[in-house]
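Minutes, project huddle
Topic: does the predicted pose make sense with 4'-deoxy-4'-aminopyridoxal-5'-phosphate bound?
PN asked that the exact inputs be recorded in the minutes so nobody has to dig through chat later. Recorded below.
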Amino acid sequence: MSTTASVRKPSKAMINGFDPARLSELPDHIQENIRRREQSLGPSYRLFYNTPVEAVRGQGTKLYDSEGNEYLDAYNNVPSVGHAHPRVVAAVHEQMQKLNTNTRYVQESILDYSEQLLSTFPAELGHVMYTCTGSEANDLAMRVAKYVTGNQGIIVTAGAYHGLTTEVAAFSPSLGVGVPLGANVRVIDAPDTLRYARQGSLEDHLRNQVRAAIADLQRHGVGLAAFIADSIFSSDGVFAGPAGFLRPIIEEVQAAGGLYVADEVQPGFGRTGEQWWGFQRHGIVPDIVTMGKPMGNGIPISAAVFKPELLVEFGKNIRYFNTFGGNTVAIAAAQAVLDVIREESLMENALKVGEQIQTGLRELGQGLEQVAEVRGSGLFIGVDLVTDRSTLTPDGETAAYIVNRLREERILISACGAQGNVLKLRPPMPFSTNDADRLLEAMGRIFRDLH
Ligand code: PMP
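Predicted holo structure (tokens), as shared on screen:
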């Protein structure tokens, strides 16, 4: 086990960028690769952690570097059924040898998969269209929403991230001042259950915020096309409950003629343990649902699911073709993912191990001034860190410190929230009780040092 004494108290920005002062401490080949990276990829890319992690191999819930060091992955939700899952590997390999083509040919596998995928949704959602990334799925969702409503207005939460295209980045406030919001985009507060619980009703607060946003759009002559929200509010700071808090927002949005787009790129495919989709905990039915990341266990595939009536005119007038979206190999990967989630009872595992982690973290955090709340659902967990519990002032520095100390112990997590003060735990779904023990043991040690 490496020492932790060498970890300096980092600034919060350092979660998303290594500390250049530490470059010389890294093995020669990593130093060299970081230089080559900067040379060829340019300045926009970021590395996680003060001391970057090299990854050459993955298996299940573990990553390995070129020296064979093992890292416990408590962060990556793309390899949702586990790194290099043999079923997914075999499905992709076999399909790649046979055929990989697009949706302009009649193929049965996409139909089998689509029917199975749609069966996980409420009956009102009946068509699926395939894309390659979450950004692209959200872009398509918004195109349809604007087309159907004839409106341009979009409402999002204050810390939301929905993707990287010009259109989608313009309704992703978490990108910060460098990426201005679109003129027709309005922002409401993140559903910060911890802080609003102290001030009265969260639901009233959110309802009022949405009403004000709709009124402001109207004042500018703009109708509402859609409200879009990540159903677990991952970049806002992980807000899973109380179940139903989204309902008043959706009532207001639909009353104003807007659509509700549930972005399931983060919580989807059973991660929250109880249900396939995060919106289901709120007892609401979206007009459109988007999904991506875990869908193909790393093979690029994403999708938007629609109420069929939304696509009648759109489909008549607009030809949809996506060269790679829903290609034969991507579908083979997605089918294997769906099969593995069911056959290996990964939703049940997410629920069980998620409970173990949440309970363990609550116990460890008891009496610790900085740990204001442990929350989440299944294997999507947030730990809200504050400078003191009376003011609930977000403490991004301590979050960055914990993230980097865990990295020194070869356990990978990250942080989110407006101030980077919420530890974000989101491991591959086969995360075992032993993995959870290892995580909790390390967290316990680090929490003790915070005292
Ligand atoms: N929506 C949410 C909630 C996301 O977290 C992300 C990616 N972090 C996206 C959309 C965009 O997905 P992608 O990176 O695949 O374009």
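Observations noted during the meeting:
- The pocket of 4'-deoxy-4'-aminopyridoxal-5'-phosphate is lined by residues 133-135, 138, 161-164, 230, 234, 263, 265-266, 292-293 (CB under 6 Å).
- The longest strand covers residues 224-230.
No decisions taken; revisit at the next huddle.
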